[in-house]
Design a protein that fits this description.
Blueprint: H1 7-23, H2 25-38, H3 40-56, H4 69-81, H5 85-95, H6 100-110
Length: 115
């Protein structure tokens, strides 16, 4: 896909950002404090939106789908083997064509040997 970075590039960027945040921690914290002080209504709005999303429990657990722990491990092993890469790609695309790349990236982070 266009615009996707390799895992090495992602790790390099992540490492750079981590070092930047460590070097500039006080500056970043001060900017955040100043923004929160200047925008109390937005802070309240963002916090309310966060807790509303949290209350809806968007992520369902394995149990919600009727999958027990043993079956969950079996399914995870199937994904790790890469046996069903084509099915995973197809399912991600059918779920949401625009988000399919992000869905696959999320699966890759959980199961690095797959897809």
């Amino acid at each position: 896909m266009v615009g996707e970075m390799t895992m090495q590039a992602q790790e390099t960027r992540k490492d750079y950002k981590k070092r930047y945040r460590l070097r500039n921690r006080e500056k970043i914290n001060e900017q955040q404090r100043a923004w929160r002080k200047a925008n109390p209504d937005k802070v309240r709005e963002y916090q309310a939106r966060y807790w509303e999303r949290k209350a809806k429990n968007i992520r369902a657990s394995w149990q919600d789908y009727g999958i027990d722990r043993e079956r969950m491990h079996e399914l995870m092993e199937l994904v790790r083997t890469g046996q069903y890469n084509l099915v995973a790609r197809s399912a991600a695309y059918m779920a949401d064509a625009r988000a399919s790349g992000h869905i696959l990236l999320s699966v890759k982070k959980i199961f690095p040997m797959s897809i």
